[in-house]
Amino acid sequence: MSLRSMTGFAQVRGKVNARQGFALSLKSVNHRFLDLHFRLPADADALEMRLRRLLKEKLARGHIEVSLNLDTSNQNGTALNRALIADYVQAFRAAASEFGLKGEPDLNVVLRMPGAMDSGVENSDEQIEAAVMACVDEALHLLNQMREEEGRGIERELRERMQHLLAAASGVDAHRTTILRAYSERLQSRMREMLGAQVDKDRILQEAAVLVDRSDIQEELVRLNTHVDHFLALLDQGGEVGKKMDFLLQEMNREANTLLSKTSGLAGEALKITEAGLLMKSEIEKAREQVQNLE
């Protein structure tokens, strides 16, 4: 299954009948969870519930806006809603009689009331619901097409970031032995200065060896490479892997931070490790920016 971005848009058009059409739009942006928002005509609660159930089955994450616009431009002529107008006129005259007021209903006011003028064609909610649901699969297909196209671009960039990360880790590993030797010599020199000849030299060397071992970055490099391998496997797997990738990148960032803390304060060759560590963090951060938009 391909990787999917959470960014996409799709719109399909359909007909309720020969005179009335509609446009159904799906717009998707990134979100930690599945967040559905609907912009539907009034009295479309049943349609909203069906759409909500279907979208939960088909989509995993993203802020999804669902819009439905009914098109009445192809309908011929309009008609009076006689029942509504009659009720208004009757209520107006009853109020005038009860309170002793004079006057007649204003036709301009009446005709501006919502529902006073209609197309003369009545469509039941069931008709609209059936017509819209018949087009939802097509809209989802178009939306996922766009999301998968965006996902392919993100995948290419993520693979490139992982290659840069592995190259930086390889550079760090190449300088590891030199750094350990420099660290050992520095510790031995410093301890001799502080303790003089009163302490056994073998004991000094043992203490220095312990400190150097604690400062070794091999363990961080091994874990980092393992995380990258797992990350690349998720890219090969595809599907809904965005959250897993985000977690792995957090772990990679933790290893890079530990590596930098272990080599801080050293000069010479250690500066190259610092540069490589900072490059690692930069690549990890750029990868996280992309992963945030994966489903």
Brief rundown of the structure:
With 295 residues, the protein is an alpha+beta fold.
Tell me what you see in this structure.
The protein is an alpha+beta fold and 295 residues long. It has three domains: 91 residues, Ribosomal Protein S5, domain 2; 40 residues, no CATH class; 143 residues, Four Helix Bundle (Hemerythrin (Met), subunit A), CATH 1.20.120. Helix content is 63%, strand content 13%. It has a four-stranded mixed sheet with strand order 1-2-4-3, covered by helices on one side. Strand 3, helix 1 and strand 4 form a beta-alpha-beta unit. Helix 4 packs antiparallel against helix 8 and helix 7 packs antiparallel against helix 8.
